[in-house]
Amino acid sequence: MKKITAIITAAGSGKRMNSDKRKQYLKLQNKSIIAHTIEVFEKTDSINDIVLVCPEEDIKFVQNDIVRKNDYQKVILVISGGKERQNSVFNALKKVKCRYDDIVLIHDGVRPFVSETSILNSIEAAIEFGAAVVGVKPKNTTKTLRAGAILETLNRDELFSVQTPQTFQFDIIHNSYEKAFEDNFYSTDDSALVEKYADHIQIIPVEGDYFNIKITTEEDLVFANAILEKKL
Fold first, then answer.
1. Could you tell me which of 28, 172, 186 has the C-alpha nearest to residue 112?
2. Beta 75-80 vs 49-54: how paired, if at all?
3. Which tens digit of pLDDT belongs to each residue from 119-171?
4. What is the mean pLDDT of residues 91-115?
5. Which runs of E-coded beta strand occur in the chain?
6. Average pLDDT for residues 15-33, to the nearest whole number?
7. Under 8 Å CB-to-CB from 95, ≥6 apart: which residues?
8. Whole-number Å distance between alpha carbons of 109 and 117
């Protein structure tokens, strides 16, 4: 039976939030954003283990004030992140004890409204095809720019706005990360590494939902509180 591990990244500084506190620790309905995120994976039966990645100086705080305080049983590791998100994820991939065909989900810690359905569908797709990415069709017309001017309008039917989790067979994502660091190739998107270094793998788009926002700015906090009010 395949082991399913969720890597939740929460090592960012949150500079765009204009807050003294890191964005992942800001409160939504008296609970931190990262706690809301962890709970979705904690409650999803298919998830066996959770690995949290946070700033090194926050490890004790996360262990005591978030994991132990909320009695999260599936969190097996809290580890330090790196300079970039890619470093943080690779730190986690090197720590997890997975067989080549086990499944790893990589999720942004500041996406607290991911649905269990999206998680389960991404796992199923990754088991069958090796790689899956949750996302949505863009609602707005999208154009490309060149030299500060609009160049062309893109066909929305051919576009996919990527979210997380991004879900992979362990050897596919681990090997892609290793090759990326060998080449000094960086991307903010995990599946971009698979596209580049495992192009024989078909990455399956999994339908997510528009509530699965990434909370990055003050405006996002307004939207997040509205979403939470609707869900309660």
1. 28
2. parallel
3. 999 999 999 999 999 999 999 999 999 999 999 999 999 999 999 999 999 99
4. 97
5. 4-9, 27-28, 31-32, 49-54, 75-80, 103-108, 131-136, 143-146, 149-153, 161-169, 203-207
6. 87
7. 51, 77, 79
8. 18
Q: What is the largest CA-CA distance in the chain?
A: 53
Q: Is the pTM of this model over 0.90?
A: yes
d(CA 39, CA 157): 34
**Structure token pair of residue 123:** 């796992």
Q: What is the pLDDT of residues 187-196, one digit of tens each?
A: 989 999 999 9
Q: Where are the alpha helices (DSSP H) in the chain?
A: 33-43, 59-61, 85-95, 116-129, 170-183, 190-197, 218-231
What is the C-alpha end-to-end distance of the chain, expressed in Å? 35
Please report the pLDDT score of residue 185 as a whole number. 97
- Compute the residue count for the chain: 232
Percent over 70 (pLDDT), the chain:
97
Q: How far apart are CA 53 and CA 160, in angstroms?
A: 27
- pLDDT higher than threshold 70 for residue 14: no
Q: In what order do the strands lie in the sheet with 4-9?
A: 75-80, 49-54, 4-9, 103-108, 161-169, 131-136, 203-207
Residue 131's SS3 state is strand
Q: How far apart are CA 122 and CA 134, in angstroms?
A: 7
May I ask the CATH class of domain 4-231? alpha beta
Which tokens belong to 188?
């903010």
CA angle at 231 for the pair 212 and 14, rounded to the nearest 5°: 45
Tokens of 34: 């990262």
Domain segments of the chain: what residues? 4-231
